[in-house]
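Researcher: Following up on the earlier apo prediction. This time include the ligand. It's flavin-adenine dinucleotide, with the SMILES given after the sequence.
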Amino acid sequence: MADHPHVIVVGGGFGGLNAARALAGRPVRVTLLDRRNHHLFQPLLYQVATAALNASDIAAPLRSVLRRARNVTVLLAEVQRVELAARRLTLDRGEIDYDALILAAGAGHSYFGHEDWEAFAPSLKTLEDALEIRRRVLLAYEAAEREADGAEQQALLTFVVVGGGPTGVELAGALAEISRQTIARDFRVIDPTRARILLIEGGARVLAAFPESLSERARRSLERIGVEVRTGAIVTRVTADAVWLGSEQIRARTVLWAAGVAASPLAGTLGVPLDRAGRVPVEADLSIPGHPEVFVIGDMSVSRDPSGAPLPGLAPVAIQQGRRAADNVLRRLSGQPTLAFRYRDRGTMATIGRAAAVAVIGGVQLSGLIAWLAWLFVHILFLIGFRNRLLVLFEWAWAYVSWQRGARLITRPWRSRNSS
Ligand SMILES: Cc1cc2nc3c(=O)[nH]c(=O)nc-3n(C[C@H](O)[C@H](O)[C@H](O)COP(=O)(O)OP(=O)(O)OC[C@H]3O[C@@H](n4cnc5c(N)ncnc54)[C@H](O)[C@@H]3O)c2cc1C
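Model: Understood. Below is the ligand-bound prediction.
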């Protein structure tokens, strides 16, 4: 096997993991590099952030997922630079050469040039982020219970989510659910149901990628469960205890960031032109111009549908691209022409708190409970590789039926906001 071509896959997320799986058992030597040792099911991160699921429910060790793929080696490593001409990667320790490369290092959130806001308004991307958000939310209620000053208590009971895309909507909905239901009767001084939850969106409507009627339904569902939705509102400043919308100050001790996308900084080391979000524009076959041996997929890249519209940063796009890139690597190595990527859109969906969602499946618009059941089914179905899939479903269903989140409401002690 040592003389087989060496294919490196960077990133064990949706794109990279599916590329590695598609290369399993094929006549190539595959190295999967990731700076974490687990694949993360990001669509359920907010459930960890809001104490509905445990961290281990949505993460699977890459080694065990790929245990049977004898030609795939998993290495825990941070890739720092790509040298296209030398076909070499610089890692946190050492270097590694490739014959073909699939880059799938994903994306993070953009603070639009205000990186200093990150300390006050964490975003949700990793398990650590989810646990940190959970800690801040739960401790805000604890601090409010002990606070004598009325204004400070109100600031502790004000939760602001910035960004009205699916993540922001899901987070705001879940925060409302925690305050109105989960812990509603657990305090003696404060009334958690009076917590103020604001969702702030710079554009004209929430869930802008969905049809307008579903955006409107999502807004109404959010308002029904107690979320104040502010659209057309641009955040101009975030401090330790407030968010500013121009001259309007909203005092809030917990601010969560769910706006903007910035591709992995690894894209910048390629020396190719990037789009405004730092993503790599790719050819129809997902390779980069001038380097047919290098493929960039998932959130790190931008590819277009036949009408020229950019494909959205969604898990199914990354999964399908991972498979196409793997196939194109094999085709190229065997002297066959590569094939263009075609996205098969099976639908998009977002949840709004408990038992409500919006979805577009096969052109059909769904909302309310039926959309939520569809969402539940799809998310459980796609917890592929997670041995405890059924257990997660059961735990989750129990938490929903009983309104209990038990041990998951426990958190680490208070730290100053600026120390995180
Ligand atoms: C909170 C949240 C909710 C979401 N909800 C949905 C949803 O409901 N439905 C949906 O379809 N999509 C959802 N998405 C989007 C979806 O998760 C992404 O589109 C998808 O993860 C993209 O896959 P990827 O392989 O490009 O990147 P990722 O899945 O992000 O994987 C990137 C991998 O690369 C690794 N990595 C990064 N940099 C390096 C480096 N320098 N060296 C080594 N390894 C590196 C990371 O550790 C990670 O494992 C959500 C995303 C988030 C953050």
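Model: The mean pLDDT is 90.
Researcher: Noted. I'll compare it with the apo version next.
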